Amino acid sequence: MKLQPPKGTRDFYPDQMARRRYLHDAWRRVSVRHGFDEVDGPIFESLDLYKVKSGDGIVSELFHFQDRGDRGLAIRPEFTPTLARMVAAKANALPKPVKWFCTPNLCRAEKPQRGRLREFDQWNIDMLGEAGPIADAEVIAVACDLLRELGVGPGLVQVKLSHREVVRQVLTSLGVPDDKINDAFTLLDGKAKTPPEVFAEKAKALGLGDEQVKRFDAMCSQAYAVGEIDKLCQAAGIDDKLEDLRAIDKALSDFGLSDWCVYDLGIVRGLAYYTGTVFELHVTTGKERALGGGGRYDKLIELFGGPAMPAVGFGMGDVVLTNLLEDEGLLPEHIGPRPDAYVISVTDTGDAQLPGVVSTLRFAGLHARMSYKQTRKVGKLLKDAEACRARYAVILDDQAASGAASVKDLASGRQESVALDKLADRLRG
Ligand code: HAM
Q1: How far is the CA of 293 from the centre of ligand 1 (A)?
Q2: What pLDDT, on a 0 to 100 scale, did the predictor assign at position 57?
Q3: Are 18 and 336 in contact (CB under 8 A)?
Q4: pLDDT at res. 196
Q5: How do residues 222-235 score in pLDDT, each as one tens digit?
Q6: Which class does domain 14-327 fall in?
Q7: What is the third-level CATH fold of 341-428?
Q8: Residue 113 DSSP symbol
Q9: Ligand 1: which of 75, 85, 120 to mutate, most ligand atoms within 8 Å of CB?
Q10: Residue 342: beta bridge partners?
Q11: Whose CA is nearest to atom 16 of ligand 1?
Q12: Distance of alpha carbon 26 from its chain centroid, rounded?
């Protein structure tokens, strides 16, 4: 019987696990320096939690089951409902603003394809308790800083920003009736994957004439730079709510994010809980699925039984990010821990001392590996030391009987004799 991993999942052998750790370390480092605290929740939740507001987009992608007490449960497809539940439960006790990050693995029963799997890791950055545009800009800044940290610049990834209320008003001004606005959002959200003639047909079904369909199409095909907000106003043909966007525009430029961001009214996001600003991170080649996405969800905490509390955040998955770093050659050639010492023995006395020497080094806090090979060929053993990128080879040779070893610096090739009781200090120095 040949057992395969389930469709859309990954096994992480040491090389892949080292890459995964590399991303998680960067996510954590950047989150912490922007002042976010780490949290986590259960990997499964009650099914109802996702039914409340996540929208059919998520619910139809759930892996769900009944427990022995016949309760409906689902493996987490995203973290935002868990976060909203956690904040709602302790809202009054939490210091404000709440600035949290987490890096959960999530499962969605979607069709596996490039950039989309059934199990993936997702970095979440969320800020609650701040209604102003500073919070929107601050969370976007964290995403941009992460990309910069990994060698990705604004030429390669852009933050496409929009505002749900602005889009709603544009749609209303075009003649989309209130009860069809959500259908129009769905159409906009899927536009990139919809052939133009199908888009036009569906837009007409919303009650739009040919001229309005053209304007609808134009509205979501044009991007505007930060600072070009007046042009956006003109194109959109509305003014209300644009005050929100104007304030965000200023915050983005104050945070130094103008190069990273563009306005694109075609972005509305599939999840139902977003209320104001929405954004997605896209690779500029256009070849990849969204790298990340988020926005304001000012009503969710209240909906989950907490007080009224504004909130903004985003999620960024590891799959598109890894594809991007691989394609651009931005992953370091060697990832993973480097041993301080690789200990080898080439004499009988050395063989007897090998476990003790390795153990002493490890208990002294050094990363030490050893050879398990029964050979006296020092050249062969040194190759193994180099292969694992050890800084030093410790060779237990003829000196072992007199309590010393040869220490070889594998970068410079220099070799010296060191007393075994001074070995840890020497390797640490
Ligand atoms: P989302 O747009 O569903 O938003 O997911 C955000 C990111 O997670 C995507 O852009 C993508 O990088 C990654 N992602 C989503 N689905 C998959 C998949 N099947 N395979 C691989 N990667 C995937 C949310 O999840 C919101 N809860 C984010 C958020 C946090 N909003 C506010 N705070």
Answers
A1: 6
A2: 61
A3: yes
A4: 85
A5: 888 888 877 777 77
A6: alpha beta
A7: Rossmann fold (3.40.50)
A8: B
A9: 120
A10: 369, 393
A11: 116
A12: 10
Beta bridge partners of 121: 105
- CA–CA distance, 186 with 193 (Å, rounded to integer): 12
Spatial separation of the C-alpha atoms in residues 242 and 322, rounded to whole Å: 36
315 lines ligand 1 (CB under 6 A): yes
> Under the phi-then-psi rule, with left for phi > 0, alpha for psi from -120 to 50, and beta for the rest, what region is 285?
alpha
Low-confidence ranges of the chain (pLDDT < 70): 54-57, 236, 238-241
What's the pLDDT tens digit per position in 118-135? 999 999 999 999 999 999
Q: Where in the sequence of the chain do the CATH 3.40.50.800 domains occur?
A: 341-428
Portion of the chain with pLDDT greater than 90, in percent: 73
Q: Is the CB of 185 under 6 A from ligand 1?
A: no
**Which ranges in the chain are annotated with CATH 3.30.930.10?**
14-327
CB-based burial label for 259 (10 Å; 0-12, 13-18, 19+): middle
b/e per residue, 270-288, with b = 16+ CB within 10 A? ebbbbbbbbbbbbbeeeeb
What does the pLDDT read at residue 319? 98
